DNA sequence: TACCAATGATTAATCGTTTAATCATTGGTG
DNA sequence: CACCAATGATTAAACGATTAATCATTGGTA
């Protein structure tokens, strides 16, 4: 239980056994030529005095710090915990530490954050880019987690497929009029999700997209989204690109006295922490962050450890499917709902985008 | 914009100017005796070739890595983003990097996480301990962010005062019967919050505590908390120790057709990201994480830079007040509500605990 | 003139590890 | 017997910065 940095080093072990430090190093790393018995003795004494190699010393010599940087668009993002946890786990399993850097939303700070990491000699960087930004060459290996449709993306969830799964689920429950709720139209992730949803509209289905930032720019921040009126218009399915927006929709509907899921269904994305504890429980899509992180880290480590000069990191599997988590906010459409006057079949289902 | 580690070092600058590396080091750090003009020249060339000191080299020599560790009870905690962001900002302002370590909830992993950090030679650690655990001496300076009532706490929000503010606010609105909703009774933070609430009950006020984990152990996870029945019992104020529980309460009440805030008021804690976007907006308490992080980092850095051997880090100001954010889930009690039969004044307000 | 202090710079050791180059010993082979 | 290869270990040079100790020069003072 003694965490204390024992101050022990190679030469100490060497002195104890009357051998050279180089031999100790070789023995422990299994690299040079050391007799089996000596290796055993060295291992034993190392364990005995609680030797822990100095990563700093090693870093200076090898030029590798064993540390990866993690840059997030905005740490305040509620998805951040999932990502950070998964990355930290994958990284430390691979023997790397994780240095965080917050870019606080702004592009300038993202640049700043990256250079802070590089100055600290990280061996590589995992970056979840700010929407709309493109990662330029930064002189060290970079794995990008964004969306499959982003150029330069290393690995990410299959947001498009997730969108498809949502609409398929709802269409199967009889829904025909969908309000797709996004936040910002510049986000690759959000566009993929919405694109996927649109691509699976059922026969005679109709979808409309509402971008919250655009809405708020017009009507002010934090107000109502006017969803009750949409229900009156015949919309029965409200599909948000994130659980945050889904929650906003759900509470707004509840407050307006519209029963969920009886009168309207609501879905989100990401399975954020609260989604399972609210009433009714939110139907949402979960990404397999553990797998994504694993792929990202593996790809990054491969590039690092093969000294590949180029900074483009590619993974064998660039996208990981999302899984639908069905809870209580989605249900078969009530016989009465949705069959309002204007049930025109004028909107053809959109074609597949890929 | 060139992030590339230029490979430049002290000797390179030295060679360029025909001086010794030591002089360059002295000039840049302002430590030895170097003539003003030479300092200028050295600074100029350093800037010109884009010299960035190798933190690794420096670390090896000085024994200080310039990196702090951040240990969180469970990264998945929705409060984590706020904490991490604030700590990262404060640390990087002080010239330190932040290495994260997730303890994934378990005590064993918390120990593990700490030793991983120590092995990486962090100069100090900021730890938000798992509830119920006590941080033992770990051989490097540690700042603990927990609650003022925790022994060994360095700095934290004044949860007790936050609790007081909640109840004062609600009492001012006429509420008398409070249901205090906690999650786990072993948490210092939660106990402080609840203690503060109890300490400010108005004349004739009544408070009851409900621990969710206990409730779920009995009735199963994820079910209803039976809040509608509590409303029938005359409770009008539902005060959760976290926005997560408040959200759970709010949606459960809404779903049961109980109007918030007309028929019941709900409050949370922490001002989590969704609290401002839900309908109605959640009244909650915000902690000033920026200040808390600043104090924690300053205290930690002071210990580190004075080489104080002892690992007990004390701050000048151990607790930071929380601020009440009033939104729409709290309102003056309806004339009809709460005046049910059993309005006995039998419960005396609890005394101050400190 | 001789001595001293202040100034400005250099030397060299050090932090702990890795690793190429070297050396010594041994047994085997032509 | 001489030569070679294999084996097991050592030496010494890095990596890049910091810093105590040292040295050289200058100007001032007794």
UniProtKB/TrEMBL annotation, chains A, B:
CDD domains: HTH_LacI (cd01392), PBP1_LacI_sugar_binding-like (cd06267). It comes from the Bacteria. Residues 334-354 are annotated as: Disordered. It holds the Pfam family Peripla_BP_3. Keywords: DNA-binding, Transcription, Transcription regulation. One of its GO terms (molecular function) is DNA-binding transcription factor activity. The keyword Membrane does not apply. Residues 8-62 form the HTH lacI-type domain. This is LacI family transcriptional regulator. It comes from Pararhizobium antarcticum.
């Amino acid at each position: 239980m003694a965490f204390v940095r024992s101050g022990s080093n190679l030469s100490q072990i060497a002195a104890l056994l009357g051998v050279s430090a180089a031999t100790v190093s070789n023995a422990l790393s299994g690299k040079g030529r050391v007799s089996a018995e000596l290796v055993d003795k060295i291992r034993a004494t190392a364990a005995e005095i609680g030797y822990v190699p100095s990563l700093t010393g090693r870093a200076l010599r090898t030029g590798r710090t064993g540390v990866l940087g993690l840059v997030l668009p905005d740490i305040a993002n509620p998805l951040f915990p999932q990502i950070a946890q998964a990355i930290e786990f994958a990284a430390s399993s691979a023997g790397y530490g994780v240095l965080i850097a917050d870019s606080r939303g702004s592009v300038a700070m993202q640049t700043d954050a990256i250079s802070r990491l590089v100055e600290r000699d990280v061996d590589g960087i995992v970056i979840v880019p700010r929407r709309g930004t493109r990662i330029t060459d930064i002189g060290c290996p970079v794995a990008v987690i964004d969306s499959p449709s982003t150029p330069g993306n290393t690995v990410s969830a299959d947001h498009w497929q997730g969108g498809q799964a949502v609409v398929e689920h709802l269409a199967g429950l009889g829904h025909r009029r969908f309000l797709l709720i996004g936040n910002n139209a510049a986000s690759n992730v959000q566009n993929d999700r919405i694109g996927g949803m649109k691509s699976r509209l059922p026969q005679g289905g109709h979808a409309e997209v509402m971008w919250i930032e655009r809405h708020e720019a017009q009507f002010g921040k934090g107000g109502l989204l006017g969803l009750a009126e949409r229900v009156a218009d015949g919309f029965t399915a409200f599909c948000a690109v994130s659980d945050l927006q889904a929650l906003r929709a759900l509470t707004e509907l509840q407050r307006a006295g519209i029963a969920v899921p009886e009168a309207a269904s609501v879905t989100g994305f990401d399975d954020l922490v609260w989604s399972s504890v609210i009433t009714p429980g939110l139907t949402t899509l979960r990404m397999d962050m553990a797998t994504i992180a694993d792929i990202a880290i593996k790809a990054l480590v491969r590039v690092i450890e093969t000294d590949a000069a180029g900074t483009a990191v590619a993974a064998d599997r660039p996208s990981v499917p999302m899984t639908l988590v069905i809870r209580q906010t989605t249900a078969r459409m009530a016989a009465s709902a949705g069959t309002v006057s204007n049930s025109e079949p004028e909107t053809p289902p959109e074609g597949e985008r890929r």
